[in-house]
Amino acid sequence: MKLKYVKKACQATDQIFNKLIKNFHFKTEIEVADFILNEIKKKSLKPAFPMIVASERNHHHIHHYPKKHKLSGFTIIDFGVKYKGFCSDMTRTLFIGKPKKQDLKLYNLVLKTQQNCLKRIKIGQPYKDLDIYARTQLQPYQKYFKHTLGHGLGRKIHQKPKISPHSKDKAKFGDIITIEPGLYKKNNFGIRIEDTVYLGKKTQILTKSPRKLFIFSKRK
Ligand SMILES: [Mn+2]
Q: Average pLDDT, whole number, for the chain?
């Protein structure tokens, strides 16, 4: 039952993100947040947690709530919904303006790290090994990875298992977790890519929104 509901929550999240991208005309963080909230309401669902929309100057704050701040540069959008009491959690990072070569390099590093982590998940494996693996993948930028690689979710947005460098939990069949590497540096960059994942016979990625970097021009 639980998996079914988390899947539904993830599908709704993908649909809303898709709509956001197709209608992208937003100027400020709060406009993006309002659009998403409205779409969640239209589906008669609730947000799983206070959404994060964090653009330049704010994107290094890991938990930043949307403001009237103008969108510029890397823009992190982190949201989820609750479906019959079960959560989804997804983050995508967009770029507003023209990314520099170094921006693309950093984005691709986070993406590659996330994809490699997803491929590496194995039942029985200590989660701390996966977290440490992510940090080695992010070298030489690993000091800018300022949170844990992921977390369990279900009825609560953060629950067991722990996926951190000190976790004592091991990957087990049936786990529902997030994998969310990121890089954050004040006045420089803020990038995170996160998916909700189910550990079945195979690893199933339940949030399926595109992971390529969407680039939009700045609005005046
Ligand atoms: Mn998360």
A: 94
Distance of CA 181 to the CA centre of its chain: 8
What CA–CA distance (Å, rounded) separates 113 from 111? 5
pTM for the model: 0.95
Q: Cβ contacts of residue 101 below 8 Å, gap of 6+?
A: none
CA of 78 relative to ligand 1 center, distance in Å: 8
CA of 220 to the centre of ligand 1 (A): 32
CA of 152 to the centre of ligand 1 (A): 9
Residue ranges of domains in the chain, CATH in brackets: 2-216 (3.90.230.10)
127 Cα to the center of ligand 1, angstroms: 15
Q: What pLDDT, in 10s, does the model give residues 112-139?
A: 999 999 999 999 999 999 999 999 999 9
DSSP percent split of the chain into helix, strand, coil, nearest 5: 30, 25, 40
State the distance from the centre of ligand 1 to the C-alpha of 173, rounded, in angstroms.
20
Kindly report, residue by residue over 14-24, the tens digit of the pLDDT.
Answer: 999 999 999 99
Measured in Å, residue 202 CA sits from the centre of ligand 1 at 21
Q: What is the pLDDT of residues 39-57, one digit of tens each?
A: 999 999 999 999 999 987 6
